Amino acid sequence: MLKTITIPERTRNIVLAVAVAAFAAMLTAFYVSNYKRHVQQDQQNVPVLVAKRKIDTGTPGREAVSKGLAAVETLPRRSVVTGSFSSVEQLQGLVAAEDVYPGEQVTARRFRPLEERGVRSKLDGNLRAIEVAGTRHDLLAGTLKEGDHTDVVANFKLESTGAGSNFSFTRLILRDILVLRAPSGGDDSAVGGSDEAKVQLALTDSQAQKLYFADKNGEWALTLRPVNNSADSPESVETLWTTLRDGLRESKIRKAFFGAAIAR
Question: What is the model's pTM?
Answer without folding.
Answer: 0.55
